[in-house]
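1st attempt posting a full record on here, be nice pls
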Amino acid sequence: MNIVILGNIGKWISCLLVSFTSFFSGSVIEKEKLEATNLNENKSYSTVNEIIPYESNIIYNSKLPSTIKKTIKEGEVGIITTLNNEKQLVKQPVAEVIEQGTGAKGEYIGKVTSYSPDCPGCSKTGAVACHTKNRGNHSLINDGIYYNDEEFGNVRILSTATSFPCGTIIKIDNGKAEPYYGIALDRGTAMNKAWQNGTVWIDVAYQTKQDIQSGNTSGTNVQFSVQRWGF
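the predicted structure (as tokens):
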């Protein structure tokens, strides 16, 4: 066969292959276009939050002086949400609980001294005159000079006139040291006589006479503030 004719046939086949390739490759490369429509693009939302005030519940307690008010439980506001004119309660309000004293005011000015089981005329066993809240006995020697009160924690043991019921909590400020809390758990004849004469006299308990010398609880013109009357 003529070489020239073979060359022309080869060129014709090459052109035919290129045409087929271009045709099919064009259909593969072409990508489908997807369109999404936002149906909410023209909508608007209006949200309003409304606060519901909480109420106050008051508990009256005759063991608290009238000057004392305590918050027993914190109040919490409620919330109502309005979305497109539809109201929904999100949070209920929680009422606060307040304890208000109705007892005697219990503010006095007097003097503070100190005593210990080994003092003249004191109980050598260290036993105090009052029972504890659970009707137990307390010894200054065996149990210490502090009483663990369920409300006020560790407080100093005091000897007072019987006008202060057993378990009375008194805040004492002698103007020299940091104010501290004590509990009426012991009695003294001298304290009762002083009360009858219009004087408030309180004794702070120590374990020994040597301890008294290093203490800083005594003083005159001491301010007494009753925090609780009795147990």
